[in-house]
């Protein structure tokens, strides 16, 4: 995400180096819609056009920033934070890509179409050679989701037969969503019932709170939420908030519990 450093103050009508990288970033997160369902080429340049201004306004609205369509300091700071790689808005969708639950007290979202697992007992696994602290981190993460929902999780030694498959991947790893190295995108997952969870292997991972490192349990808890069907929320205390603080551990918040119980009622 180093390209963001040069973009502070950029606005519509200007040409600035690395605007093209910003367009790719916002397109990946779903803020730039492309109707032809392919990677567009007409807007991947360094000119700050109307489409980019609209995308930045959508981003600023989602994260409750000042909505001005400008790459102001607060917008650059927000974008620079380490985050989940799951789109806030699915690509090639309408302007309302998630099902937003319209209540005064909640902000949780679901993937388009409300996909979820048809069963309540799910298995998870890791490929051979996975670091051991990931096992305990995911075990505790599944226990948290299980405590607040009717879902139950168990470890399965056969990786290929598990419902949820968790692994560490690097850069371009063949799923169409390449990682970006240290910093930036920490992990990603796909909507139910795919069950694939990827951590970015280039990050510094620990199981706990360590300065300069990311907590396996916190990121795993977030990505499991996606694997179960939850989208991102703008509630900063929720585990499904898309940005992750380095050196910290989070648990489920009120908004997360409301979301999972709405999707999987007792």
UniProtKB/TrEMBL annotation:
What's one GO-annotated cellular component?
A: extracellular matrix
Instruction: Name the residues that bind Zn(2+) 2.
Output: 84, 222, 226, 232, 240
What does the Swiss-Prot or TrEMBL cofactor note state? Can bind about 5 Ca(2+) ions per subunit.
Keyword Calcium set for record:
yes
- Stored SUPFAM superfamilies: Metalloproteases ('zincins'), catalytic domain, PGBD-like
Query: Which UniProt key words apply to this protein?
Result: Calcium, Hydrolase, Metal-binding, Metalloprotease, Protease, Zinc
Binding-site list for Ca(2+) 3: 180-181, 200, 203
What domain of life? Answer: Eukaryota
Matching Pfam families = Peptidase_M10, PG_binding_1
Instruction: Check the record and name the Gene3D superfamilies matching this protein.
Output: Collagenase (Catalytic Domain)
Query: Binding residues for Ca(2+) 1, per the UniProt record?
Result: 203
Q: Which GO terms describe its molecular function?
A: metalloendopeptidase activity; zinc ion binding
Per its Swiss-Prot or TrEMBL entry, what cofactor is needed? Answer: Ca(2+); Zn(2+)
Enzyme active site: 223
Annotated binding of Zn(2+) 1, by residue: 173, 175, 188, 198
Q: Does the keyword DNA-binding apply?
A: no
Q: Name one GO biological process term.
A: collagen catabolic process
The Peptidase metallopeptidase domain covers 113-266
The family note in this entry says: Belongs to the peptidase M10A family. Matrix metalloproteinases (MMPs) subfamily.
Q: Which PANTHER family match?
A: MATRIX METALLOPROTEINASE (PTHR10201), METALLOENDOPROTEINASE 2-MMP-LIKE (PTHR10201:SF213)
* Protein name as catalogued: Metalloendoproteinase 5-MMP
Organism this protein belongs to: Sesamum latifolium
């Amino acid at each position: 995400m180093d390209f963001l450093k040069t973009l502070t103050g950029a606005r519509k009508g200007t040409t600035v180096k690395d605007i093209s990288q910003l367009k790719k970033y916002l397109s990946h997160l779903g803020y730039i819609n492309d109707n032809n369902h392919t990677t567009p080429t007409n807007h991947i340049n360094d000119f700050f056009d109307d489409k980019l201004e609209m995308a930045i306004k959508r981003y600023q609205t989602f994260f409750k920033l000042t909505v001005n369509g400008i790459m102001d300091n607060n917008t650059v700071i927000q974008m620079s934070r380490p985050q989940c790689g799951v789109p806030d808005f699915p690509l090639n969708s309408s302007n309302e890509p998630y099902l937003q639950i319209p209540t005064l007290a909640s902000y949780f979202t679901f993937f388009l179409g409300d996909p979820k697992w048809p069963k309540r007992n799910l298995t998870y696994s890791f490929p051979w050679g996975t670091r051991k602290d990931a096992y305990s981190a995911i075990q505790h993460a599944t226990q948290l989701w299980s405590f607040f929902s009717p879902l139950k999780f168990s470890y399965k030694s056969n990786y290929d037969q598990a419902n949820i498959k968790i692994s560490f991947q690097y850069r371009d790893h063949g799923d169409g969503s390449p990682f970006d190295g240290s910093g930036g995108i920490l992990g990603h997952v796909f909507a139910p019932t795919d069950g694939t969870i990827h951590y970015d292997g280039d990050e510094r991972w620990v199981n706990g709170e360590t300065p300069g490192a990311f907590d396996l349990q916190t990121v795993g808890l977030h990505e499991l939420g996606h694997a179960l069907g939850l989208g991102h929320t703008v509630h900063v205390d929720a585990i499904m908030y898309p940005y992750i603080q380095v050196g910290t551990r989070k648990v489920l918040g009120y908004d997360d519990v409301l979301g999972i119980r709405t999707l999987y009622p007792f």
